[in-house]
Amino acid sequence: MRALIVDRSAPGGLRVGTAPDPVPAPNQALIRVTATSLNYGEVAFGIAGAPEGTVLGWDAAGIVERAAADGSGPAAGTPVVTLGADGAWAELRAVDTDLIGTVPAGADLGAISTVPVAGASALRALRRIGPILGRRVLVTGATGGVGRYAVQLAHQGGAEVVASTGDPAAHGDGLRALGADEVVSGPHEVAERVYGVVDMVGGDQLVAAYERLSEGGTLIAVGHSTGGGENFPFGALFGNEGRHDRSIVSFYLLDEPGLASDLAWLAARVAAGRLDPQISWRGSWDRAAEAVEALLGRRLHGKAILEIEPGS
Questions:
Q1: Of 68, 107, 192, 252, which one's alpha carbon is 20 to 30 angstroms from that of 211?
Q2: Cross-referenced Pfam families, in alphabetical order (predicted)?
């Protein structure tokens, strides 16, 4: 099969080449991939750390080429969205059926390919915060793929949403259109305490966001775009002054149970126009280097989609 393989001598560290066809396990379906969406983490860290010739990629949408041998999952011919630790950047992908969500017929599979990491991470993070109806939720790194989904889902869940971005002047109107009630340049600008935080940044921003939690509040550490550690000042974890019973939680998406139904639910909402995938770049996988460069240069705010074009 043709695939986008790691080749650090090529621009962006990737080139379209050939790789062996995947051999599905009994609980895996074989997917004919139509589109994949790029995530900052896999581009920034995956390409640099993977052996030459590796086929990476977490997110992919396409059509079931061959159903799983054990009878689980969707039938051949079904449009689907898939999640996995690798293998999305190829014409064919073998995927565990509990990581496959069905997609409404006729949906834009490019848009649907943005769902797995960004949409599911946002959804699972908000669930960990707990009931958010009528409560304040802060989303840091709100202009990224996960952040934009988190703003929309928190708004639709009835939260008062505070969106944090490095450039409120440039992105404030767009974030408000997604459902943000307030747009700030960082957690330090949040005057009224929040019940929950979906943090995509890490480092000093995570520390500052934790300080803004109300009693009983939860911060979900999802992203770590700063690449720096979290250094809490002495006293930050004291339980006095109404700041006790606060928590910091992390999770690993691929270890989460029940993802197939979440992927299908998110895909249906994107297909119906109830969630905006916020696509900021879209093109053939022949142009992968262009997308990678823009993503690493922080010039993309939203999702980048590569179309897997047969014979291209």
A1: 252
A2: ADH_N, ADH_zinc_N_2
* Positive or negative: CA dihedral 278, 280, 285, 288: negative
Burial (0-12, 13-18, 19+ Cβ within 10 Å), 287: middle
| Residue written as token pair 């606060």 | 246
CB 251 within 8 A of CB 124: yes
Closest CA relative to residue 116, chosen from 107, 127, 103: 103
Which pLDDT score is estimated for 301? 85
Distance (Å, whole) CA 16 – CA 287? 10
What tokens were used for 271?
Answer: 């297909």
When pLDDT is cut at 50, 70 and 90, the band that residue 312 belongs to is very low
Band of pLDDT at residue 139, cut at 50, 70 and 90? very high
Q: What is the pLDDT of residue 235?
A: 86
In the structure, what pLDDT confidence band is assigned to residue 311 with cuts at 50, 70 and 90?
A: low
Closest CA to 218 of 209, 205, 226: 209
State how far the Cα of 258 lies from the Cα of 260, in Å rounded to an integer.
Answer: 6
Two tokens at 171? 């992105």
Q: Which residue has the higher pLDDT, 242 or 192?
A: 192
